[in-house]
Amino acid sequence: MIALQISSMKQFMNQLLAGDTFDIFLLEEAMIRTACTFTIDGHINRDFFHNNDREPVELPYDLRPWSEMKGLCFDLIKGKRTPLGFHFVLHLKPEKAAALLAREGSDVDPSLVKALVLNIRYDGTRALLTTATAYHTFLPSKEPDSIWDRALMKYLEERSISTSFLT
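Now predict its structure.
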């Protein structure tokens, strides 16, 4: 697990809410504090989705893609006043997580990794990114954590998102 502080909020927010930089993620949860506190549960209500015969529709994920939710989050945040805070819990899409672990030669079977998680927290003054790895069961190996940490730092650097380690 690493904790990174965002150096340029304006650039970061533009990439988070208007660009496609974070479209490789699914939204587990969002909490946005402005005039009111808004909470979004990103878990899909499968009963909502059906075809004309009322048969369930196959959906690729259990969580909503960030690309489909960022507009709503942007609408809740935008305005003349800075939000009091927000917190987003994002999961790297499962196929991307499995490919990353396989490409890096992880000693852990990717099917045992539930999610590679990115937490984005803004407290009214600064934005922090923290990584986490969720497993389906206890594993002594922490190699997926290290792989995820390195991959995220490289990904942010490639997209010119400036960060510093939180001390």
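The longest helix spans residues 143-158.
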